[in-house]
Every structure is written in structure tokens, then in C-alpha cells.
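Is this the right way to post C-alpha cells for a design question? Let me know if I should format differently. Anyway, here goes:
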């Protein structure tokens, strides 16, 4: 196990923690009450974006946690994916 694989696992765990923290953020910022004041379309767009971001974070974390060895391999596809993950 290389330090790079451990770093990828840590990145996956951090991404999963960020996704989980979004649930608490929704409660702390009282999304329900604040969204009730918006027009329905704006509230729906906001919720769609919030859910999308959480799902992407879960997806990225699962890639890091399950495929860390492949991401650390240095293959062109792995380098492309890790570059995209880092840019996000």
C-alpha cells in the first residue's frame, strides 16, 4: 500500500463527510422555512442543485474508496479521472 493510495482513501472519506455534513447544513440553515418564501420553481431548482451536489460527492467518494489502487496506477484514464476529481 503506497502513500498515494492512503491519500486517495482519505480524500474519499473527506468527501463522504462533506456529503453527510450537507444534511446538517440543511437543518442549520432551515431550508424548509427559507424555501417556503421562494417561488416554487426557484425552490425546486435550489433543491435539485443541492441534491445533485450531495449525490456527486457520494459518487466521487465511492470512486476514491473503492478504486484507490486503480486511481493511483498512473494509467491515462486514472490520471484523467483524478484530475477531474481534484478540479471539482
Amino acid at each position: 500500500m503506497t502513500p498515494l493510495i492512503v491519500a486517495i482513501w482519505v480524500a474519499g472519506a473527506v468527501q463522504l463527510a462533506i456529503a453527510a455534513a450537507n444534511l446538517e447544513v440543511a437543518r442549520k440553515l432551515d431550508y424548509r422555512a427559507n424555501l417556503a418564501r421562494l417561488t416554487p420553481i426557484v425552490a425546486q431548482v435550489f433543491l435539485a442543485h443541492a441534491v445533485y451536489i450531495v449525490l456527486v460527492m457520494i459518487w466521487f467518494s465511492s470512486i476514491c474508496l473503492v478504486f484507490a489502487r486503480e486511481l493511483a496506477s498512473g494509467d491515462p484514464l486514472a490520471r484523467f479521472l483524478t484530475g477531474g476529481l481534484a478540479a471539482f
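Format looks fine. Someone answered above. Worth noting: The mean pLDDT is 95. The radius of gyration is 17 Å.
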